[in-house]
Design brief:
By secondary structure, the protein is α+β, with helices and mostly antiparallel strands.
Length: 797
């Protein structure tokens, strides 16, 4: 029976706790304790920016005139409090797929999205790997003098490569182009004899240096490819790096001249034995114009090579993506490490190391690059430059085996397998003007000739926040109960604009917004959000505490934090409680200061201490009371007879037998010396706002004769002590063998000083003297040899 009662009691207790939790949660939700409600959400735009789950109620009589911020909440909370769905403005996130556009490899190819700030949309792009894909292979070869042998090997590649690629592709087309460097100084020798023939010193006929020469467009005729390569000759330049990246960009963007086929895989293979120039290198030649990313071929020759700088890696990467080109770098092993760093910055790039540019090695490199590039499926998402800072993108690939890969690619994909990319696009903010905008986001499948176009419509405002003749009814529900229609007298609307000015202000909306229909529409700032009835509040111009505006304990109003109850300080970081500032007498800061953030700030700068109790410079306060004390002493310190002194002395005087025991921190200790050499101690304090004095009834008096005798005794004792010290010091010095003259005793050894021990002569001393039997003009030189002292022997000082 007892166990049954215990179990029954436990069940009842559990039910009671659950009901309590539910009621608390319901109460919290109903009172605006959601993620949407905030005192700063004073407009529909502010509300919807708090998150896609929030809604704004524009019903005119909602909550009978409750605070504006109460209109922002979760939709279910607003419905519970009487706001119907027809009176709500909510975040609309829509994803619409255009199924009419057919695709083979990348699907879907057209998506439309509607977003608001703080919201995000999710969609999936599928990329399918086809079998036996047509291939366009363009050889871009460095024809500088050091590549002579490699160019000879390339002449035998065409037929063998075509036969080998038949295993992987039923349709291989090849093209060819050459490059050296920009034909200007200091890249080439500009001597007239070297411009047309850089190899004149070696009696060899070379081609002039060139930035890029398109030699052969895409063709399936292997014999034609081989014939054109056999006709190629080398050239020459001065510096070590070549203009390979400059030529790559032209080969990528000159689609019509090169003949890239839309349905084929595009492989652009760069063959070189040196590094490449990068952007800004052209300044050495006085070329400062950035590359425009366009094709500049005339008669198959790159004509703008001496007019524009080398392209940047970002620009080259963008153009390779736009034209669905895989880049393959075939370099000698000496330069492998340099290109290894470069390839990481180019999407869909492959790097191969060749000991020698021999035909078998080149064929294996091309086949391996083709297989590797096709087995790795990668997407790249690009946002328009004007909006890149206002949107964010997340890509998560789902590989054919069901795994989720890191990054934005899947490896080891086989023909006829599909890779799914889960893509999320979110909006951070609106344009500076606060208007709606339409942008385009491209989802490129790297190396594929198909891509997905994502059209984003951003809604930055609320339809209920604007008024006009053609606006829908929700606008008329936000006029603050005035009942004004947009077609009413414009004079009344102008008069209502006075509601856009704060009390005492002569500008509308604090100068940070415009007044529309009697309400402030705050401007957009790059620094943050401006809000409030008069645009007087923001989230950026006030002090921060712990990375939070006003410590999240207040709101920013006109550049100052308006703190919540219980908090104070510039950033609302100080509790209002003054308990830590209370002095021992119970007064805050001894009545001489204010409690700021738990510490006393003294009103009078001469006071200091934790409770403003110290006053090193308060001796002047003691002197100011001497006349008052003297008046009371002249009447014998009797209360009744000293009362008339109170009329001449501002302080309230009290008499005590002993004031030394009351040396509290709040009282200043003073002393008065009378004409008869008596000392009277007294205390002064102004802690209650009115000065007070406590005078001791017990003076400390000393007679004149006694004072003189004491003084003489002290003097005699001081002289005697001095003589004793001098005598003892002399005795100790004599015992140590030291005489005042500084000479050593006869029987005692002399110990050299450290300075004397450090002097050890190591050179001969030479001196000159004269003898009487020699003429004065013929001196006789005499040499005195000073031997070196053995190490460790004492110095004979």
């Amino acid at each position: 029976m007892t166990s049954w009662l215990r179990a029954y009691g436990s069940v009842l207790l559990c039910l009671l706790l659950c009901s309590l939790v539910v009621s608390v949660c319901a109460e919290d939700s109903s009172t605006g304790g959601s993620a949407c409600w905030s005192p700063s959400a004073t407009s529909c735009t502010d509300c919807l920016r708090r998150g896609p789950q929030c809604a704004w109620c524009f019903k005119e009589d909602f909550l009978n005139g409750a605070g504006v911020s109460q209109r922002c909440d979760l939709p279910e909370n607003l419905r519970r409090r009487g706001c119907g769905p027809e009176f709500m403005e909510q975040s609309e996130v829509k994803v619409e797929v255009n199924a009419t556009v057919s695709s083979t490899q990348v699907s879907p190819q057209d998506i439309s999205i509607t977003l608001r700030p703080g919201s995000e949309a999710n969609f999936i792009v599928a990329v399918k790997q086809l079998e036996r894909y047509p291939v366009d292979l363009y050889y871009l070869v460095d024809v500088s003098a050091s590549m002579q042998e490699n160019l000879d090997h390339l002449k035998t590649v065409g037929v063998a490569l075509s036969l080998r690629m038949m295993e992987h592709s039923s349709d291989l087309w090849m093209g060819f182009g050459s490059f050296v460097d920009k034909p200007v100084s200091p890249y080439i020798n500009v001597h007239p004899s070297k411009i047309n023939n850089p190899c004149s010193d070696y009696e060899i006929r070379c081609r002039p240096a060139h930035g890029f020469h398109h030699v052969l467009g895409m063709t399936g005729n292997v014999s034609e490819f081989t014939r054109m390569i056999k006709r190629q000759r080398i050239s020459g330049n001065m510096d070590t790096p070549e203009g390979g990246l400059d030529a790559m960009l032209q080969a990528a963007v000159c689609q019509r001249a090169v003949g890239w086929r839309p349905e084929a895989k595009h492989l652009l293979m760069l063959m070189t034995d040196q590094t490449s120039h990068l952007a800004l290198d052209s300044r050495l030649a006085g070329i400062v114009v950035p590359h425009d990313g366009l094709c500049h071929l005339e008669n198959n020759v790159y004509t703008a090579t001496t007019e524009m700088d080398h392209p940047s890696l970002g620009q080259l990467s963008e153009k390779l993506l736009e034209n669905n080109i895989h880049s393959v770098f075939a370099v000698e092993k000496q330069q492998y490490q340099w290109y290894e760093e470069l390839v990481r910055l180019l999407p869909g790039a492959y790097l191969g190391k060749l000991g020698l540019f021999q035909a078998p090695s080149i064929i294996e490199l091309v086949v391996d690059a083709y297989k590797r590039l096709l087995s790795e499926v990668t997407v790249s998402v690009s946002v328009e430059d004007k909006a890149v800072s206002r949107y964010w993108v997340s890509v998560s690939p789902i590989c054919p085996d069901g795994s989720t890969a890191n990054g934005q690619s899947c490896s080891g994909v086989k023909p006829d397998e599909t890779v799914y990319f889960n893509i999320t696009i979110g909006q951070r903010s609106c344009p500076d003007d606060g208007n709606d905008e339409d942008i385009t986001v491209m989802v490129h499948a790297v190396g594929y000739n198909e891509s997905t176009v994502v059209r984003i419509h951003s809604k930055c405002g609320c339809s209920c926040e604007h008024c006009g003749d053609n606006e829908p009814p929700p606008c008329r529900g936000t006029q603050g109960g005035s009942g004004l229609e947009p077609r009413q007298d414009q004079g009344l609307i102008k008069e209502s604009n006075q509601d856009c000015r704060a009390a005492g202000s002569d500008v509308d909306c604090s100068g940070r917004g415009v007044c529309e229909c009697g309400r402030c529409v705050c401007e957009q700032s790059r620094l943050g959000t401006i809000h409030g009835k008069y645009c007087e509040m923001d989230d950026f111009s006030c002090p921060y505490e712990g990375g939070l505006l006003c410590g999240r304990r207040g709101v920013c109003v006109s550049g100052e934090c308006a703190c919540e109850d219980g908090w104070t300080g510039d950033s609302c970081s100080c509790p209002v409680s003054t308990a830590t500032c209370q002095a021992p007498n119970g007064l805050v800061c001894s009545g001489r200061g204010r409690c700021v953030c738990g510490e006393c700030v003294c009103d009078d700068p001469q006071y200091s201490g934790d409770f403003c109790e110290r006053c090193p410079a308060c001796q002047n306060t003691c002197l100011s009371h001497w006349k008052c004390v003297e008046c009371h002493l002249s009447h014998g310190l009797r209360q009744k007879e000293g009362e008339h002194c109170n009329s001449t002395c501002a302080p309230l005087v009290g008499y005590k037998d002993d004031v030394s025991g009351q040396a509290e921190e709040l009282w200043i200790q003073c002393m008065y010396i009378s004409n008869d050499s008596c000392r009277y101690r007294f205390q002064t304090s102004s802690q209650t706002g009115q000065s007070q004095l406590h005078i001791s009834r017990r003076p400390e008096c000393v007679s004149s004769g006694r004072m003189v005798g004491t003084f003489l005794s002290v003097c005699a004792l001081t002289v005697l002590c001095g003589l004793v010290v001098v005598a003892m010091s002399r005795l100790l010095l004599q015992k140590r063998g030291w005489s005042p003259e500084g000479a050593a005793e006869d029987g005692g050894p002399y110990h050299c000083t450290v300075k004397e021990l450090s002097y050890k002569p190591t050179t001969n001393e030479k001196t000159v003297t004269y003898r009487r039997d020699h003429p004065p003009d013929r001196p006789v030189e005499m040499h005195i040899q000073v031997p070196k002292m053995p190490l460790g022997d004492p110095w004979p000082c």
